[in-house]
Amino acid sequence: MVKNLQKVFFPGTENEKHILKNVSLKVYDGDFISVIGNNGAGKSTLLNTIAGTLSADAGKIVLDNHNMVKRPVSYRARWMSRVFQDPKMGTAGDLSVAENLVLAQDHTNTFSLRRFRRVDRWNRYQELLKTLNMGLENRLETQVKYLSGGQRQALSLLMATLSKPKLLLLDEHTAALDPKTSRDVMDITREIVTHEGLTTMMITHKMSDALKYGNRLIMVQDGQIKLDVRGEEKQNLKSEDLVKLFQD
Amino acid sequence: MLISSLGQGLLWAPLVIGVFITFRILDIPDLTTEGSFPFGAAVTISLMLQGHSTFIATLAGFVAGCLAGMITGILDTKLRIPSLLAGILTMTGLYSVNMHIMGKSNIPLLDQKVLTNYLPDSINPDVQTIIVGLIIVSIVVFLLYSLFKTRLGLSLMATGNNKAMSAANGIKTDGMIIFGYMISNGLIALSGSLIAQSNGYADIGMGIGTIVIGLASVLVGEIFLRGRKVMVRLMAMVVGAIIYRLLLTIAMGLGFPPDDLKILSAIILVIVICVPIIQNRINTKRQLKQYLAQLSEGEDYEQRNEVGNTSGQEFAKGILSRDGE
Question: Which CATH superfamily hosts domain A2-247?
Answer without folding.
Answer: P-loop containing nucleotide triphosphate hydrolases (3.40.50.300)
